[in-house]
Each structure stands twice: as C-alpha cells, then as structure tokens.
Amino acid sequence: MSKEYQLIKQYYGDQTTKRSGVRLIAHIDEGLELLEMVNGSDKAKKAYCLHPLVQQDKELSENHQLLSDVDPEIVLLALEYRNIANQYLSDRKIGTVDDIKLSPLQDVNDMLKADKIQNYKDFVLHHYGKHERSDILNKYFHNWFDRLQMTRREVSQYIRRLSDEEEQSALLDKLHIGFTGTHRGMTAQQVTAVRKLLSDEQDVILHHGDCIGADASADGIIKQIGAATIIHPPEKTDKCAFCPGALIVMDPKDYLERDHDIVDDSVYLIATPESVAEVIRSGTWATIRYGRKQGKRVVLVYPDGTIRDELRHGLTREELGGDLEATV
Predict the structure, then answer these.
(1) Which residues lie below 8 Å from residue 91, measured CB to CB, with a gap of 6+?
(2) Where does 174-327 sit in CATH, by number?
(3) pTM of the full predicted structure?
(4) Angle between the 42-54 and 72-85 helix axes, to the nearest 10 degrees?
(5) Are 181 and 215 within 8 A, CB to CB?
(6) More confidently predicted of 255 and 280
C-alpha cells in the first residue's frame, strides 16, 4: 500500500456518496484498476490517489500540508490533474470537444481516463434517467471520452471488466426489451406506437442493433423517456448509426448473430416491419422468426401503427414457430 493510498484512505474513512451510498474510497480503488487496464504508470496511480485532496479550492486549502512528505513530482501530477479537470466541468458549454483542454503530460491524461470511466460507471448504475441533469451529465461524459479518443466500445469494455457481480445483477434487474426494424426507418404511426409501448414500461433497457433508420429512432425515443440502451453493433459499419450514450456497447458481430443476441438478451421483442406480409429475405422478419422460435413474446408494430402482441392474441408458441401465415 503506497503512502499516497494511505493518505486518501485515511481522509475518506467510511464516507459514502449522498445519492447512491457508494463508499468514496471505491472511486480510488476502481480508478487504480482502470489505470492498470490503460497501462498507467506508478506515478499516475499515486497522483490519482491524491487528486481528491486537491481537487477543489477548499480541499487544497485544508489538505496541502498533508502532502509535505510526498514526492514533489507526484504532487505536481495531482495539481496538473486539478488544473485540467476543473477547466471542463458539466456546467460548461462547449462548441466542440476540441474546446476541452488536455494535459501535455500523458500521466495526467491517463488519470482523466480512469476518473471519467469510473464516474460514468457509477452514473450509469445509479443516476442515468433519474438525476435531474441526466442528459447533461451523459453528454459531459461522452465529450470527455471523445476528447480522450476513447471509443464507446472501449469505455463499455472497461466498465464490464470493472463491474462486480452485484453491479452486473443491478442491470439484470431491469426490463430488457429487444428492438428490430429496417434501415429505412419507421412510419410516423410506428414511432407513436413504439413510444407508447416503451413509455408504459418501467425500468427499461432497450437492446438494438445501432443501424440508421428504425434503430436510431428507437434510440431517440428511449432517451426521451429517460431509459437506457444496450447496443449490439454490426461488424459492417456502412449503415451504423453510432448512437451515443449507451450503457453498454457489445462487441460487433455479423448481422444474423447480432440479431440473435438482441432476442436472447431480451424478455420480449418489439418489431417494426415495413409490411404486414412476411418477407423471407429481410433481417427484421428473420429476427421476428428467431424470436418466435425461441418462445419469446413478439410485439409487431405495423406501418399503420397497429400493434399485434402475438402471445396476447391467443397464439401459442407452437403455432408461432410453425404456421407463419397465422401471424399476419
């Protein structure tokens, strides 16, 4: 245990965050794990331990004497972190992410990565869609990730590696709904119907394939109602929407495998096909057929806005897996 870690552990004690009740020292412990993941130096790890002691003016005034026995280079890194991090807080409006200043010191930028990922993980678990500034905070974190040149997939992978079993189960306790539609989008009637379906549910996480058109529209709806998304991107990116702000971005897969994952990871599937008649060579209809085969509840939203909840219209799973004409 380093001298710097002992200082912050003694400073934090058993204190917890006011909203979520998470122990404050967890921010340091998980930040150090993240620094290990990004190959941060030992100096960066030591300075990361110290940054809460100097982050704000009050803390700096009260704690500077605690640092008298610390290596001056470590103190310098902690102060440089304070300088850079405090220049872009969530209440500052920027034009582009290039307005966010980074440090000329790589150790400090590594500390920023660890800090933002760890804070974002807690935001996702405890505050997304609940905090009064949820949309602003979500944008703030993603601005930092963009400026630090971290892809949403990288961030998601770090969070998944960092989260413990209890935190993973907190995500599983949500209502996971799958979504499929075409890259040509939804009709206005389908958009209205999908919004109603999703708004009527509680604690939703929507799984979608991150394509232009229907997926992007569904992503917008879910954000409007303050819910969350898990994205299953395709390997081919020519039709990818790159929707921002997902809780988790899964590894890219080919279209068929990715569509199966959406169904498998969801309690039920909402589908917005282009037509009432079934189409054989259609990714949307293939996903619908897979959902039926897996015995999942499938909710069809037709172009005119008509909703057909198949398992609530007297159709058995056996019928849905057999006679396709019975569903239209």
Answers:
(1) none
(2) 3.40.50.450
(3) 0.66
(4) 60
(5) yes
(6) 255
Q: DSSP state, 275?
A: -
Instruction: Report the chain's mean pLDDT, rounded to a whole number.
Output: 88
How far is residue 312's CA from residue 298's CA, in Å, rounded to a whole number?
9
């979504």: which residue's tokens? 179
pLDDT tens-digit series, residues 143-156: 999 999 998 778 87
Q: Where do the domains of the chain lie?
A: 3-168, 174-327
60-99 pLDDT, tens digit per residue, is: 999 989 898 999 999 999 999 999 999 999 999 999 999 9
The DSSP secondary structure of 40-109, one letter per residue, reads --HHHHHHHHHHHHHSSHHHHHHHGGGGTTS-HHHHHHHHHHHHHHTTS-TT---SSGGGSPPPS-HHHH
CATH architecture of the domain with range 3-168: Orthogonal Bundle (1.10)
